Amino acid sequence: MNMMEIAVTKRHHLGALKARERWKPAEIVFWLALVAVYFVFPTSLVFASQILITGLFALSLDLILGYAGIITLGHAAFFGIGAYTVGLLARHGWHEPLSALAVAGMVAGLAGYLTSFIVLRGNDLTRLMSTLGIGLLLYEAANRATDITGGVDGMQGVEIGELFGLFRFDMYGKSAYLYVLGVAFLLSAFTRALMHSPYGLSMRSIRENRTRAQAIGIPAGARLTNIYTFAAVIAGVAGALLTQTTQFVGIDVLGFQRSADLLIMLIIGGTATLYGGFIGAAAFLLVQDQLSNLDPRYWLFWLGILLIAITLYLPGGLLGALGRVSAAVARKRRGEDA
Fold this sequence. Notes:
ABC transporter involved in vitamin B12 uptake, BtuC, 15 helices, mainly alpha
């Protein structure tokens, strides 16, 4: 290959990279729709905030499962660490929300970095068991440390100060929703830029074939540690947001059920899509709310049927189905134009 061909190839790759980095109309509509929720559903902002927090949490799992191929059953550990960090800070006089949010993210990130040396060793089964074990250990530690965490009764007396010294977190959730939306957008935009960069492409290479990725010079071990730590930071921020908007910390933030539900949400929405976590969280929580109202005793039965149907007939989740539909429509239009 001569110099001219190399230059053309580089320009082609740069052009493809810039095309991936451009925001698509559907992405812009997605975030504008979330802004519209504030005005269209003013009485449901507390529930909408919970959906956004859960979606951000699911985004963190998408990074390590969808992009890095790391299977985990204990991701709620970092969510709980972030939640308890903010709660403990508030009980000791640190009520300012933004700085506490940053501290919670850093503490969860540190926990992610330290546990990555255990989790990232071995095969998928080893990772499943190690992450499950870490989650169970933290849950039991929080359950026993009743003087610090409140145990099964939860942490009481969590008071969060006003945002920017002006906006109070009230029972209607107006300030909380805009706060959560702002944090979710900033972290999602940063994550999007990261995953559309050469770094994100290297993560896909590691997921597809780690041996081949290492052969072409990608430091797989370091990249996996980095993404695992970053995912822990986002999960910790999501947990901190939950504490700040509800001003309460329950021990369930460390529970296995939260990790399991999160995995279900991501499968429903679609992995390695960045938005699948948000879509899956919204679908799961809305369906859960409706089914529990219709049939409080057996709603899990109907939810199970729905999950089986999605797994069998919608591979790639809801976003995967939407992608196939849009591709089919585009092919039909091209055929008509021809």
